[in-house]
Request: fold
Amino acid sequence: MDTMYKYIFGPVLSRRFGLSLGIDLSPEKKSCNFDCLYCELEKARPIDKIENQPDPDDIVKEVHDYLSKNHYPDVITTTANGEPTLYTRLNELIDKLNKIKGSSKTLILSNGSTINNPTVREALKKFDIVKLSLDAADQKTFEKIDRPLKGIKIDDIIKGMISFRKEYKGSLVLEVLVVKHINDKKEVIEKIVEAAKKINPDRIDISTVDRPPAYRVFPVDNQTLYEIAKMFEGLNVNVATRKSGGSVQKVHLDKEDIIKTFKNRAYTESDIETLFDDETKKNILDLLSQNQLKFYTVANLKFIKA
Ligand code: SF4
Reply:
């Protein structure tokens, strides 16, 4: 990457979205209306605006320059050192990015808090993929894990996500990050599942603390992640496991069971690798070649389903 760039970074290979060229709307300091326990940035008091906002033309110039010299990445990802929807010129930026994106898809990673702001919503609708976070569906857990700016209500956010889904034609991905002893209880997850079913995203990504977090919190192990994933039955769930997250007990299924299981839930190739024993994997390959199982792609991630 050219060092003259101020707003773009990468590309980085993301397991969830493919090769990603990043845009940072707040390169100088963290600007977020949350202060999540698990944040990979430093802890910081939540704020509701980005100071010294960049000019969209300066960002687009960098993206354009990068694209003229390199292959198109799978996604051009709008992030901030914090929350990208606090950027007041998002609408202008996405219009300009869409004109130059070529074969890349535009993606935004948002915490979902501004989903009821009509201007933000108009801008979000223009992205090919929108990722919103939902770490809790009850106010108490939401405040504990995401530490939002005062006055932000999770009920309003969920209602906003439900209505956004109805208007938005692109791929909506919901991300649930599970932190040990904070939002891993069955009752807490059940409420998230209930909300997720009403929101009806194209995909749900479930993950846990990975890189060193802002506060002293801990990941859940891979087995727990898969137990939680099972609770989201009927939705496309992608589990982002940790390399050191403990081994998952391998599951054996015969062909009939595979069809039944894969009817209820789609699995990504990496989930199949982690979850099933060798004979089951061979059965899955056989069923794919017989067209009894099929591949399909949601927001750049490949799933297998019956
Ligand atoms: S929403 Fe994202 S950037 Fe903001 S505090 Fe949480 S993890 Fe960090």
